[in-house]
């Protein structure tokens, strides 16, 4: 496995760990400033909206897994296809489970770090 593939797999693990711990500011650092998210039934949204949604989720316990099924790196660009399962449990409520697939494009910055650039999330 190449260093770039290892770095991307670590980014995915960090994203899941930071989310589980509610460290949403650290999740935001794992994406480019011009990141764009595509989800069913919604207009595409960016990093700012992602951060706002994350802040509104404070207090919700989030557990999940992200299994990378394909990963391809070409220079400063990479894409991956993943299977994701998430369970979100509000402080006073029933768990909500979502699962599905994502297609993610990543870009390697001038600092050598990989970051999420585009994410098409088909979880339902």
Brief summary of the model shown:
The chain has 124 residues and is of the alpha+beta class.
Keywords:
about 45% strand, globular, about 25% helix, Nuclear Transport Factor 2, Chain: A, 3 helices, six-stranded mixed sheet, alpha+beta, about 120 residues
Characterise the protein shown here.
By secondary structure, this protein is of the alpha+beta class. The protein has a single domain (3-121), classed as Nuclear Transport Factor 2, Chain: A (Roll), CATH 3.10.450. The protein has helices at 3-20, 24-28, 47-56, and strands at 31-38, 45-46, 61-74, 77-89, 96-108, 114-121. The chain has a 6-stranded mixed beta sheet. The longest helix has 18 residues, at 3-20.
Class by alpha and beta content = alpha+beta
Helix content: 25-40%
Q: What is the count of helical runs? A: 3
Number of domains as seen in the coordinates: 1
CATH topology: Nuclear Transport Factor 2, Chain: A
Biggest beta sheet attributes: 6 strands, mixed
CATH class: Alpha Beta
